[in-house]
Design goal:
The chain is 34% helix and 22% strand. It is α+β, with helices and mostly antiparallel strands. The protein folds into two domains: 124 residues, 3-Layer(aba) Sandwich (Creatine Amidinohydrolase, Chain A, domain 1); 237 residues, Creatine Amidinohydrolase, CATH 3.90.230. The strands form eight sheets. It has a four-stranded mixed sheet with strand order 1-2-3-4, with helices on both faces. Strands 7-8-9 form a three-stranded antiparallel sheet, covered by helices on one side. A hairpin with a 2-residue loop joins β7 and β8. The longest helix is centred in the middle third of the chain and has 26 residues. The N and C termini lie far apart (53 Å). The model has no long low-confidence stretch (mean pLDDT 97).
């Protein structure tokens, strides 16, 4: 087993949060040597890190006071350059694997002083794939919040009244902001975090991760894509539904039928040992049989704008998009404990589209669907 070195906080760096399941807002040193996990941090964090079962050390053990007294380096340089080097020397680390986001400023100093560092994104992505019980619990909590919020959004849409080609709810125009306010209230009530999410409508629904804006009109697609985070575990959920207030256009009804069939087929195929790209290919073939373009058969270099132009899904955990990949590059086989999305969609630029997304825990014999919410187009 290679030595491991991370220098980051555990709030923004998923590699660190996976190893140290404690909220530490300032960057600190984490290392693995011979199976032992160790940290070097401010004394303020030591006891909490120890409670997580990790050998925790304070800055003072690695010359912090002496370096400050010398006055030859700023506190920033001491923490980000001198202490990581002193800790590596004390722990006997001469070579280590680091995550892709390891700060260059820190790495340069370590390398200049004889420490060999090898960035390896896949190493850290793979070790986070199989979720532990705390992470699974956090994902379930976040998914419960997403489900409740989707229900609140659906209820707002269901209360909308149509008059003179526009929609109102509670006497006010039905806008994206009105729907988002209802969703945010549910997230607050469920104690989950969310910087933003998608409530797009009309032609916006065919534009990637367009967050949505403006007044919602009758008879047009409304795509709601939610990915709240459980603050305690740091883990996300992810789900999408498509609605219409009024009468769904025939084109959208057909999209919805095909997308729901694709979702069902992909869920049936999701199990341990199956490469993600195989499930993606299955969905592409389903759409192409119905005359819909996909990236599976497009010409090299062609940018596909209509049809199924994105991957089928991705891993979810400490990042909302993480390994494994269920797309053209998804050669890795699924394994028990993976948490993945299945999110087929069909779109036409200028019109809009339909996407349905469920969150799945991969098992030996199939997948457990964590998303318990209807797929109906009309609220």
């Amino acid at each position: 087993m290679p030595d491991v070195l991370i220098f980051a906080d555990s709030v923004t760096a998923p590699e660190m949060r996976h190893e140290v399941p404690v909220v530490v807002p300032d960057p600190f040193v984490y290392a693995e040597k011979g199976g032992t996990k160790m940290t070097c941090s401010t004394a303020f964090e030591v006891e909490r890190i120890k409670e997580a079962g990790i050998e925790a050390h304070a800055y003072e053990e690695f010359g912090y006071d002496e370096l400050l007294a010398e006055g030859k380096a700023t506190r920033f340089d001491i923490i980000s350059r001198h202490l990581p080097l002193n800790a590596c020397r004390a722990w006997g680390i001469e070579e280590a694997i680091i995550p892709w986001g390891f700060p260059t400023y820190v790495a340069d100093h370590l390398r200049e002083n004889g420490i060999t560092l090898t960035p390896d994104h896949q190493f850290f992505a793979d070790r986070r794939r199989v979720k532990n019980e705390a992470e699974l619990a956090g994902i379930r909590k976040a998914q419960d919040a997403a489900t409740a919020a989707m229900g609140a959004a659906r209820d707002v849409l269901a209360r909308a009244s149509q008059s003179n080609g526009s929609l109102t709810v509670d006497g006010e125009p039905l806008t994206v902001d009105v729907v988002k306010a209802a969703i945010r209230q549910v997230f607050t009530d469920h104690s989950v975090a969310s910087d933003d999410f998608i409530v797009s409508h009309g032609a916006q629904t065919a534009i990637g991760h367009e967050l949505g804006f403006g007044e919602i009109a009758p008879d047009e697609p409304i795509v709601i894509d939610l990915w709240p985070k459980d603050p305690e575990s740091g883990c996300y959920a992810d789900m999408t539904r498509t609605f219409v207030v009024g009468t769904p256009p025939d084109e959208l009804v057909e999209y919805h039928r095909l997308v729901k069939e694709a979702l069902d087929k992909s869920l049936e195929a999701t199990k341990a040992g199956v490469p993600g790209v195989d499930i993606f290919t299955l969905v592409c073939e389903h759409f192409e049989e119905a005359g819909q373009p996909t990236v599976l058969s497009k010409k090299p270099g062609q940018v596909l704008e209509d049809g199924f132009f994105h991957g089928l899904g991705h891993g979810v955990g400490l990042e909302v998009h993480e390994a494994p990949n269920l797309g053209r590059g998804g050669t890795a086989e699924l394994m028990p404990g993976d948490v993945v999305t299945l999110e087929p969609g069909l779109y036409r630029q200028g019109f809009g589209g339909c996407r349905l997304e469920d969150l799945i825990v991969v098992t030996e014999n199939g997948g457990e669907n964590l998303t318990d919410f209807p797929y109906d187009l009309t609220p």
